[in-house]
Specification:
- This protein folds into 3 domains: 88 residues, GIY-YIG endonuclease (3-Layer(aba) Sandwich); 103 residues, no CATH class; 148 residues, 2-Layer Sandwich (Nucleotidyltransferase, domain 5).
- It contains 14 helices and 14 strands.
- Strands 8, 9, 10, 11, 12, 13 and 14 form a 7-stranded mixed sheet that branches. Strands 1-4-2-3 form a 4-stranded mixed sheet. Strands 6-5-7 form a 3-stranded antiparallel sheet.
- Helix 8 runs antiparallel to helix 9 and helix 11 packs parallel to helix 12.
- The N and C termini lie far apart (82 Å).
């Protein structure tokens, strides 16, 4: 039976495809030459769409040369794009394909290393910094990774179930991640060392591609804890199981890669699915003016990060001046900085926000959403020096509408509370 691909795609019939078709699911693909040698390993949120792209548009000379040599394509499906990212690194390390490393210094690749400290941490290390025997310095090393942005996004996702430390013991105040329950309190000396070591072992197993093993162990521990009436512990394992079975990363990493494509085309660089902060000002006839700050991370509300401001320096109805005070007060705090700011408002609000950030020497992209009288308008507004930003954000308009509406809801709720207190 012929193994040539016969689909509506652009892949030529001279290229053999495993199973004849490419699925529209996450996974890793391996490009092979006429001798069966692996030339290139790549990851994809959709194997079908990503592989077809190689044959649909022009590329640089290196990729064009590789495409001419492709005679077969194999793939390995994964449940999530995050797992595809991990498998890609492991396969690159195994095959070291020429077109993954052509024109690059092998030692310049990025690796994920787990330190050998009392409380081990995952850190990024370049190949030339690993040393001759990395096993003497690190508990584990994973990579090489071709996309630092994707690796950071993956770690942000995983930290919600594998809560590790990124700080050192002996701090007077808890770190930012402790408040998010994504650090067990190593910073202030409240972490249980035995539990923490187990968390790191589990993180290592995940990067070894052993998600199924982790799930089996978590289910066993959950049943045992429930049987022994340790219900809080059982609930924690239940939550971990649910997280690993429902990792919401496919759309995140897919959209992130689309943003990277835009960067390659010379447009604006912004991590759409990093941290978005949304702001709105609320008052009635210039009284009891308040402002809200809501936070979306990985495309979802992070309600523990929300903040509200009671405006102090502005008299009367002046939304622009109120926004200026809000942003100045916000950035006086040592809160995590956003990847992008969304203002519920138009050109005036965007300009004042940009001015405040410039004064504070912060390079954070700002967009506005002009709401109109009925709050049905969804026009994106950028300052005149960054119009390409709106083109990129327009692709994720629904997300920014959610942020805008949530900022408005939170501001209105706080404004009503303030008015009740004054009554």
């Amino acid at each position: 039976m012929s193994m040539f691909l016969h689909t509506t795609g652009m892949i030529p019939k001279t290229v053999r495809i495993k199973g004849k078709t490419l699925p529209d699911t996450p996974g890793v693909y391996l490009m092979k030459d006429a001798k069966g040698k692996v030339m290139y390993v790549g990851k994809a949120s959709s194997l079908n769409k990503r592989v077809n792209q190689y044959f649909q548009k022009a590329h640089d000379a290196r990729i064009e040369d590789m495409v001419r040599q492709i005679r077969s394509i194999e793939y390995i499906q994964r449940d999530t794009a995050l797992e595809a990212l991990i498998l890609e690194a492991n396969l690159i390390k195994f095959y070291w394909p020429p077109y993954n490393v052509l024109g690059k210094d092998n030692k310049s690749f990025l690796y994920l290393a787990i330190t050998k400290e009392e409380y081990p941490r995952p850190i990024f290390v370049r190949g030339h910094d690993l040393g001759e025997d990395a096993s003497k310095t690190y508990k584990a090393v994973f990579g090489p990774y071709t996309s630092p942005r994707s690796l950071r996004a993956a770690l942000d996702v995983l930290r919600k179930v594998f809560a590790w430390t990124s700080c050192t013991p002996g701090m007077k105040r808890p770190c930012f991640y402790y408040h998010l329950k994504q650090c067990p309190g190593v910073c202030i000396g409240v972490a249980d060392k035995e539990s923490y070591q187990k968390t790191i072992r589990d993180l290592i197993r995940f990067f070894e591609g052993k998600k199924d093993v982790l799930l089996r162990d978590f289910r066993k521990h959950m049943r045992r804890a429930a049987k022994e009436h340790r219900f809080e512990e059982a609930a924690a394992y239940r939550n971990k199981i649910f997280f690993l079975e429902h990792i919401q990363d496919v759309a995140i990493l897919k959209r992130e890669h689309e943003a990277v494509d835009k960067i390659l085309e010379g447009e604006t660089s912004v991590n759409i699915f990093g941290r978005i902060e949304g702001y709105d000002v609320s008052n009635i006839s210039g009284t009891s003016t308040v402002a809200s700050m809501v936070v979306f991370e990985q495309g979802a509300p992070a309600k523990s990060e929300y903040r509200k401001f009671r405006i102090r320096s502005v008299r009367g109805s002046d939304d622009i001046a109120s926004l200026r005070e809000t942003l100045i007060r916000r950035f006086r705090n040592r809160w995590k900085h956003p990847d992008i700011i969304l203002i519920d408002g138009g050109k005036g609000q965007v300009n004042i926000a940009t001015s405040v950030l410039r004064h504070l020497n912060l390079a954070i992209p700002v967009i506005g959403m002009a709401k109109g009288r009925t709050r049905k308008k969804t026009d994106l507004v950028c300052d005149d020096t960054n119009l390409e930003l709106c083109k990129l954000c327009q692709k994720y308009l629904n997300l920014f509408i959610q942020v805008r509406d949530e900022a408005h809801r939170f501001a209105i709720a706080y404004h009503r509370k303030v008015r009740r207190m004054k009554a």
